[in-house]
Amino acid sequence: MSENNIITKKDLNRVFRRAFGMQFSWNYERMQALGYCWTILPTLKKLYKDDPEGLKHAVNRNLEFFNTHPYMALPIFGVSLAMEEKMVQGGEVDGHAISSIKVAMMGPLAGIGDSFFWFTLFPVCAGIGVSLSQGGSILGPLAFLVLFNIFNLGTRYFGLIYGYKFGGSFIEKISGGSVMQRLSEGTTLVGLMVLGVMTASMVSVPLDFVVGEGEQALTLQGIFDGIMPNLIPLLLTLGVYKVIKKGMSTTAVLFIVIGLAILGAMIGLW
């Protein structure tokens, strides 16, 4: 940490410790957002100690939707804190850029975390532990815990430290001109692309209702797919987004969608 930094090594160590509780609070509307904000809240209070209004905006910004692999969240903490610090110091960073960077990072890091920790490292460490446990040796579970957590804790800690260092140096390099604006626009575009892919692949509205008879019979699904593939999932997603923006709670939207699904199934619509 340089002398110009407001955030110290002690602050980052505190973020590292608090990050273990990031998933203590989790909901379907904003996923890990509350835990994310709670993790960095003491650091935000330090950054904005002379700016109550700035702290309010920072808290609201860090309560936005967030979801990634918990072990891979620390690099995002580091980068976003570096950007918050630069904004406090008058750098060419704004709140929209901070939010966009978080959105752009959380998807790829979630994929890396899932594939590495759950599908590669966990089976390997478990296999070593099981082989050592044969015959009743206590070394099996101990070896599993030690090996797995070397990578777990190392990824968390060094991800936070280097995320913060990378975030600071990266911002210094791109400051000036319209680079930050283009970066913000680019990350926003990536986020929208991810949302489009998720809508097409994860939202399913199979309209099996048949229109016509005999060889001329067509399902509603086929008709709408002929106009535009996955048109109904897109319209449903946009409709949900619109009613939530108008103030309806996500819980109410969830029950409405469940009710429509049951009703549609009963009348043979899907």
TrEMBL record:
What biological processes does GO assign it? phosphoenolpyruvate-dependent sugar phosphotransferase system
Q: Which residues cross the membrane?
A: 115-132, 138-162, 183-207, 227-244, 251-269
Q: Which GO terms describe its cellular component?
A: plasma membrane
Which Pfam families has this protein been placed in?
EIID-AGA
Q: Which UniProt keywords apply?
A: Membrane, Transmembrane, Transmembrane helix
For the keyword Nucleotidyltransferase, the answer is no
The record, for InterPro entries, names: GatZ_KbaZ_carbometab, PTS_IID_man
Q: Which PANTHER family match?
A: N-ACETYLGALACTOSAMINE PERMEASE II COMPONENT-RELATED, TRANSPORT PROTEIN, PTS SYSTEM
**What name appears for this protein in its UniProt entry?**
PTS system mannose/fructose/sorbose family IID component
User: From what organism does this protein derive?
Assistant: Amedibacillus dolichus CAG:375
